[in-house]
Amino acid sequence: MSRKPERDYEDSPCRGLSRRFCKSGSLKWWTSSFAYPSVDFHLRKGDCPSLLELCIKKINEDIDRYNTFSMLPRDISQQIFNKLVCSQRLTSVSLEAFRDCALQDLDLGEYAGVNDSWMDVISSQGSSLLSVDLSGSEVTDFGLSYLKYCENLLSLNLNYCDQISDHGLECISGLSNLTSLSLRRNDSISAQGMSILSGLVNLVKLDLERCPGIHGGLVHIQGLTKLQSLNIKWCNCITDSDMKPLSELVCLESLEISCSKVTNFGISFLKGLQKLSLLNLEGCLVTAACLDSLADLPLLSNLNLNRCNITDDGCEKFSRLENLKVLNLGFNDITDACLAHLKVLTKLESLNLDSCRIGDEGLINLAGHRQLKCLVLSDTEVGDTGLHHLSEFKNLRSLEICGGGLTDAGVKNIRALSCLMCLNLSQNCNLTDKSLESISGLTRLISLNVSNSRITNSGLQHLRTLKNLRSLTLESCKVTAYDIKKLRSTHLPNLVSFRPE
Question: Fewer Cβ close by (within 10 Å): the C or N end of the chain?
Fold first, then answer.
């Protein structure tokens, strides 16, 4: 099994299996330094649900018996609606019972069957409606016209709604209270259609990811001075000329323009964005020369230069980005010489060097990074000696060294990293049961991957101490699902995901 899933940069708010767009999550660690498995909270055995919870559960089961909930308090109607959506029991027929209920939030993203016929009831919530998610629905421009009566709407999510065009945007042009608008993956929105967005003066967040027709349209949003977050990832139509209007967005804090045609020249237009803290340039045509412009951004703390044209040439300019906390340099042609210039970036909390030409000696430059919590060194030249240089990262919580030449001797250096919660050592084929013995003291681990190694069933005994372990991956090892299940039943009560299974 490969350690890297097929690349997918889109978020998916999956509530179960979407009929079209449910996606397996990609690592995406650059936007959050480290992520932990989500937790579902349920009533513990013996806990008694409240009377309200019991009533809502009963109504959910007998939904076909009710014609209207408009006489109920809004918060109760809202909970009934949410329960129906969560249990996949809301239909166009049962939706009618929520007409004129003054609901505030209608989260129907990726919900099957949503189309224009639903919009009349949705709009009947009137001025109470604050948030609507119609992602992946069959709603058209006509259906969207119903929302013009919901003048207090703050958040509207229309991701993957491929039947909405510029005409649909005209229908929401009067929703001047909108603070969040998401239009991901829309082929029909044009640069001319974006002129309609200029009236949404209270927008704080705008998402136009994978909208291939917006080149030249960003000029229409330069007056949205309250905008704090702009996502135009995977819009390969975007060029340097589109960057100039962005220089007017003085409140912008987050900008994602990955996989575009933007070069160092385009980045120079961002110099005046004094509040910018997060910048995603993954896959852009930039070199280390862009660091001259980025050095003028005093609050820049999160920078993604993954899969760019970064080499050792010009890397000395990294030393000027002293406030960086998250830095992604994966899949660039950099060596230990570049790491020497990262030595002064002592505020770093997350660093990705995946597939770079980094070796053992380069890691000496990271020895003083006491704040480092997440480190990715997969498919590099780092071996046993390099891990020795990491032994003083006492705050390290996530470490990934896949596809390397690690041996049991090198893994011994990990024993002192007592704060580790996520450890991925997959595809190091020389690791044996002794490595599991070395990490048996890392009792905070919640995720462990030692796939494609020489681990055997006998080595599983060393994992008994890892009571917090929730995910265990030992594919292509001499380990059976039976023995993992046995270990879980006797020693690992929190283990919810394991392979082989």
Answer: C
